[in-house]
Structure formats: structure tokens, C-alpha cells
Amino acid sequence: MERAIEKSELFYQLLAEGADEKSLSWIRIQGEKIEKSGDSNSLFISFSQASRYFKKASLSLSEDIEARIHSNYENLEVSYWNLLQVARTYLVMKLPLEKEKWFKTISQLFETGDLYEQQALFAALPVLPFQNELIPRAIDGLRTNISLVFDAIALNNPFPSTYFPEANWNQMVLKAIFMQRPLYRIQNLDKRSNLALAAIARDFAHERWAAGRDVMPELWRLIAPFVDESFQKDLEQVLATEDTLQLKAAILAIHDSDFAPAKKYLEKYPEMVQSIQNEEISWKSIGSEFQRIRA
Question: Taking the domains of the chain in order of start, what are their residue ranges?
């Protein structure tokens, strides 16, 4: 009976850096029960009870354990997880890999879990087995309007950029804009840029403007690789704003674009261009400031 034993130990070591001996002893015993019996109920019970032993506290990551995690899971950003998420991930990884039974058990966890349990499961997608078969589950999870769950899928998670078809990827990014989530935390956003998404983002901006509402400044990152005469007109409207953050976003989009006619606008903002070149203005800094302002 195949088990994900070795890699689960990475997550136990991660717990060991921030949990007390009582909690570690409990989870080790629960993991052994799940591993030896393959009993779904053992996982259901311990998965729920984990909140009694592990808090939603930030992780303490040593360089060694972080390096070991990255060597096993490319782009996995566990620094955004908490102890309780790690504990629940460890327990799930102890479940024997009998495919049919595994999916039945995991599906029940997804469908009956509370918000924090769903958060743990969706964030853990990159470390779970049967990745391709989990794509529909991840896509279905994006239907939520609860930021805690949505963020677990969309932000700091390599799963969407690795597995989502373009249509689902675009839908996720657009919903992140609608929910005003930080786009700079979506992995491989630039790598998966596409003209269809740029057009959708522009249409969304037009709808917001028509309703007299502002546009999330990070939106213009999506159109930067595709700036042409049409997109330039939209950026000209952004440049006319008195909002400094919007102005930074428009200048950065033009700076990042390859459309020569739009470059003339950079001449009017030499200080901003210099700040971009010095990496003082970036999509991350724009996104971070926007989230701080709206908080």
C-alpha cells in the first residue's frame, strides 16, 4: 500500500519548529493511525480536532526546512500558511494512496469542511497526489465569494498557473479583480498573460467607469504586454486622473509595454520612470499600497 511517508515528514518537521511536545505527540499518533488503518473516519476526526492542538499562528521557518520544502515542491509558499494548515496537510498526506478510496475521503473533507478546513485543503493542492484529477475541484472552489477560501486557491499557490486551462485561469484572475484581491500574489501572472484576459480586464474597467467607480490599479498590469492604439486610449484616460496610484500603474504599464507610440508619455514623468528603473515602483508596491489604502 503506497503512502506519501517521506514528504509528510517535511511537514512534521515544519510543525516541530513551532508546536509544543503535547501537540506533536498527538499528531504523530493520529498520523500513524491514518497511515496504518487507512480509515477515513480516523482522518475526519483528527482533521477536525487539529484546531485543539494547533493554532492559526504564523510559521517559524528555518532556512534548512524552507530549502528542503522548495526542493520537493517548486514554488510552494508555505510562509503564507499557519500551523493549523500545516497540521491538517500532514494528516491528509498520511492517507494511503488507494485512488478510489482516497478521492472519496478527500471529496468528503472538501464538501463538509468549515472555512478554515477548506482553506487548508485548497492551499495544500500542490502537495496532494493525483494533481490532474484535482483540477475540477480547484476550479469549482473558485465559485466562492469568501476571500479566505478564494485566496487559498488563487494567491501564493502554484497550482492554478500549472494546471488551469486558459479560460479558467482568466476567470480566476477576473474574479480576483472583482473581489479586489492582490494580483501581485498570483503566481506566474505575467507568464500566463494572454490577449483574451487583457480584453476582459479592459471591458471590466469600462463597466466600472460607466458606473462612476474606480478601477483597481493592478488591472493595468494585464494589458501591458498587449498595448496598442486601443489600449493606449484607456491608459490615456488613466493618465488624466489625479490619483497617484492609478498614475503609477499607467506609467508602469506603458514602461513594460512594447508599443512605441505610447512611450512618449514617459517623457512627462521622468521621476516615476527613474523610480521604476530603481525598482521603487513595481506591481508589488502598487498592489501593496492599494490593499493598505482599502483596508
Answer: 1-127, 196-295
